[in-house]
Amino acid sequence: MQVPTCGASRYALLTGRSPRNSGVTRSNQAFYRGASALSTEQTAGAQTMPELFRRSGYQTACIGKISHTADGRVFEYNGSGDGRDELPHAWDELATPFGSWKRGWGIFFAYANGRSREDGSGIRDLMQFSVEEDEDLPDGLLAREAISKLQAYKKGEQPFFLGLGFFKPHLPFVAPQQDWEAISKIKIPDAPHPEKANSAYWHKSGEFYSYNMKFPKTRPLAERDRMQARRAYLACVRYVDRQVGKVLKALDDLGLSENTIVVVWGDHGWFLGDSALWAKHAPLERALNSTLIIRAPGVSQSGLKSDALVETLDLYPTLVDLCQPSFQKTEHPLDGVSLKPLLTGQKSKVRDYALSYWNTAVSVRDQSHRLTATMKKGRPTNVELYDLSETPDPVQNLAKEQPELVKQMLQAIPDMKRPKTD
After folding, report:
1. How many other CB atoms sit within 10 Å of the CB of residue 148?
2. Which of 171, 192, 360 is nearest to 283 (CA)?
3. Are 36 and 42 in contact (CB under 8 A)?
4. Furthest-apart CA pair in the chain: how many Å?
5. CB neighbourhood size of 106 (10 A)
6. Confidence class of residue 421 from pLDDT cuts 50, 70 and 90?
7. Nearest to 132 by CA among 175, 80, 88, 191
8. What's one GO MF term for it (predicted)?
9. pLDDT (tens digit, 9 = 90+) per residue, 133-178?
């Protein structure tokens, strides 16, 4: 994926633009701020993927976190803001249910019983597993609303584009008690390399450590405490996985499965104590490797797995290729490539390298290695090269040992002036 943080990654997905061209390499640059802000006036070409499908006659609905905000409306965490559409002209409906949390960021940072990290009470616990029912928490409400929308679409004649953005396993770690208990019964592995990485891109995991913990905030966490946090994350994954299952079952029950494309996508990866890192915000493998599953009836081969390199940017042209929407003019050229040849099995790869961005760093991934460099006036500094066939963690920087591979991978970076490193 393009950027190891949610808003900027989603900007690339929804606009089809590379961070190199849009300049969006952090979440605070995305959608409605600065030079990259989307126009509130309707432009000649579609600015975003859902807008293109809406212009083509699709019914479009946003449930949950599809862009950066939690419900598609522009508000700050504390509730200030005008609530305008974050993606202008994209959605027929902003259908996120708020439940007892009352607003978007409230449901995103939710605890049980209508409490929220942003409700002014000061609650900021790392984890909570107290409720019994799925719909006692926001993601259960999102699944229910999505199923209701599918039932309505079944009765209509228009095609639909439904964006369903579950919140977990984002911090805080909150899920039903059954998911915590289920994960607690399973033996899970510890981080294979829990010690601090000797990397220029290591950070202090400020987002994670800002939460209140029932154990000492050591760096790294003690093994017992680290395992507690890893289990909490996996409990949230289990909770959301069950919600995805409910929605897919509804597609089957409603007879919509055979003519509905389903994409399951994650906006970035996550560190779970690996290299003494937590969360994202680093241009390294664990934060830049995310979930991607596509089911395209009549096109994709059932059960086909691929190790092809792809980018978040590729989803937009892929859906255009698969659906052939009547309106195909976009405000900016799409920077990705269609993955349809991978889905059909006609090709085993569509690109030689995948590129990601974080601030001034660029990361290049080939089939076996990841190179990351900080670019200064077109020249690379802080060059790190890791062999991912050994481990996804930044354990041994091979940049000095393999200069020819470094030179080759640097050439994949646009605007490279010359392969001089330091």
Report:
1. 14
2. 360
3. no
4. 63
5. 24
6. very low
7. 175
8. arylsulfatase activity
9. 999 999 999 999 999 999 999 999 999 999 999 999 999 999 999 9
What is residue 416's predicted lDDT score, i.e. its pLDDT?
Answer: 67
**Cβ neighbours of residue 346 under 8 Å, at least 6 residues apart?**
none
Spell out the domain ranges in the chain.
Answer: 45-352, 360-422
Residue 36: both structure tokens together: 């990259």
Residue in this structure with the two tokens 């994670």, named with its chain if needed:
208
Catalytic residue status for 62: no
Q: Rounded distance, CA 269 to CA 266, Å?
A: 7
Between 419 and 406, whose confidence is greater? 406
Q: What is the identity of the amino acid at 45? A: G
Contact indicator for 207, 171 with CB cutoff of 8 Å:
yes
**pLDDT tens digits for range 310-347:** 999 999 999 999 999 999 999 999 999 999 999 999 99
Is beta strand 369-376 parallel, antiparallel or unpaired with respect to 59-64? unpaired
pLDDT digits (tens, 9 = 90+) for 47-83: 999 999 999 999 999 999 999 999 999 999 999 999 9
Query: Six-digit token pair at 421?
Result: 């490193």
**Cβ atoms of 197 and 203 closer than 8 Å:** no
Strands 173-174 and 127-128: parallel
The CATH class, in words, for 360-422 is alpha beta
Tokens of 351: 């690109």
| Region for 23 from its dihedrals, namely left if φ exceeds 0, alpha if ψ lies in -120 to 50, beta otherwise | left
Q: Quick one: fold of 45-352?
A: Alkaline Phosphatase, subunit A (3.40.720)
Catalytic residue of the set 6, 89, 170, 236: 6
Q: Which two tokens stand for residue 346?
A: 């006609």
Q: Residue type for 332, please?
A: H
Q: Which member of 68, 170, 281, 369 is catalytic?
A: 68
Catalytic site includes residue 6: yes
What percent of the chain has a predicted confidence (pLDDT) above 70? Answer: 98
